[in-house]
Structure formats: structure tokens, C-alpha cells
């Protein structure tokens, strides 16, 4: 009589499947992920989704209320601003601008932070001292004040605002990268690579850096929310994107005088900033829990 064959060992799940398994346990993180995906969808297809141009003015409908309020119109679902521009269209185009600011700022600060963190972790001595003391000085200043100082030197504008935000976020990546490098250098695989004849550059970028990506990914995700907040703050102060560019912070600044008479002009840009920042923070928390083995049950 033939006996059924014993089941063989099950294949280990792929890293992405395992990551999603732990990530999906956090409902807040899943909500944040889908909200972020919706923001990227709106940003990519803003020209087709927005019902009107972001800068076109309908003077006959200035300060029109939302469609569900008395005096509102279906033509402008969320109402219009003081010069008759459709708020919904400006919010959709503002999502593109805010995500672009976050992407450029995080990319700049992350790239430079990785290089400086690797140098500080590997070379030590006076190189580490010089880099880390500079980062300490930058961290000693309030982030918004430092960003204002950088923009004051470079001049107001969208590009300079992105540079300023990248400078503000740089110390976080440098310190995180240095700490990760020092931890990895004490492990056996690094010693084995050195014995095998790997040079310093190969140790930096081929051996150590791939094992430091998990905390960097989490920090970069959270950095998006900080970049959106800082961009909105600079735009609110008139140092970021300049009118008529549809940026959420500048929309708030131009609506201050109507805060009592036209609530929708202030409320909707504020909600856009709140929801986007909350979504990135929730997604970052979920990634941190999913990528950290100590937090896995």
C-alpha cells in the first residue's frame, strides 16, 4: 500500500509579501497608503481631473460658496476664492506641487545625507567631528527659522524653497546614516568583506549601505510630511511659491482676510495640508513597524 508523500518544506514568502503582511496589520498605515496613492493619482492627472484651470478667474462668481450651501453652484463644488478661481481645481493642482516639493527636497537631503553619514561613519576622527558638529549646529536652530534664513539668502521662490527644506532635513539623514553605519561595521560580514579585499568605497556602497536602507526609507517617508508642512509655511509667509501658483500655503495666506466671511477659502486648503501630512505620517509609522524586526510579533 502506497503511503502519501510527506509534504516538502514550504517556500519562504518573498520580501514584498512579508512586508505587506506586517504592514497591512496596521489599519491606519493602510489608510495612509491609499490616501498617498490618491494624492499621487490626483497629481499625475490634475490636468484632466480638475474641472477648471487653476489660475482662470471667474470674476462674476468671486467668493461663491460650496455647492451644498445657499448660493452655491455645481460649477464650483468647493466654491471660489476672492478673485473667482475654483478652489477644487487649485487644491488638485496644489497636490502636484506639494508632492513635487516633497520628492525633490527629500531626494536632495537623502542623497547628501547618505554620503555625509557614510563618510562620518567610516572615516571617523576629524572628518566625523566636523560633519557631526555642523549637523548639531543646524539642529540647534528651529527648522522654520533655518528655512527662512536659507530662503532669505537665496531669494524667495519655489526652487529656493525646496533647497531650504532640503537643508533643514539634512541633519536627520546624516545622523541616522552614521548611527546605522557604526552598527553595521561591528558585524561579521563587514569583517569578512575586508578580509576578502574589499576597498573602502565598495564597503560603503555595496556592503554597508544596502543594510541601512530600512530606517532611511522610513525617515524619507516621514520627511515627505515635514517637507509639505515646511513648504506650506514658507508659502504662507510669502517666501515659497509665488501667486498665482496653486500652492496650499500661499492659498491660506491669500485667504486670511476672508476667514470670517468665507470659511471655505481657508478651510479646504488647511484640510488638504492636514490630510496629506497625516497620511504620510501614518504610512511612515506602518513602514517602521513592518521593517523593524524587533516590532514584529
Textual characterization of the structure:
This protein is mainly α and 297 residues long. It has 12 helices and no strands. The model has no long low-confidence stretch (mean pLDDT 87).
Secondary structure layout:
Elements: H1 15-23, H2 27-44, H3 46-49, H4 87-123, H5 125-140, H6 143-154, H7 158-185, H8 188-195, H9 200-208, H10 213-236, H11 248-254, H12 263-291
Helix pairs in contact: 1-12, 2-4, 2-12, 4-5, 4-7, 4-10, 5-7, 6-7, 7-10, 10-11, 10-12, 11-12
- The overall pLDDT average reads 87
Q: Which residues sit in consecutive blocks of at least 5 with pLDDT less than 50?
A: none
Total beta strands: 0
Main beta-sheet strand count, sense and barrel state = none
Tell me the structural class.
Answer: mainly alpha
Give the N-terminus to C-terminus distance in angstroms.
Answer: 43 Å
Report the β-strand fraction as a percent range: under 5%
- Tell me the radius of gyration: 24 Å
The 3D shape can be described as: elongated
Helix content: 55-70%
Query: If helices are DSSP runs of H or I spanning 4 or more residues, what is the number of helices?
Result: 12
Helix and strand succession?
HHHHHHHHHHHH
Keywords:
single chain, 297 residues, mainly alpha, 12 helices, 68% helix
In short:
With 297 residues, the chain is an all-alpha fold.
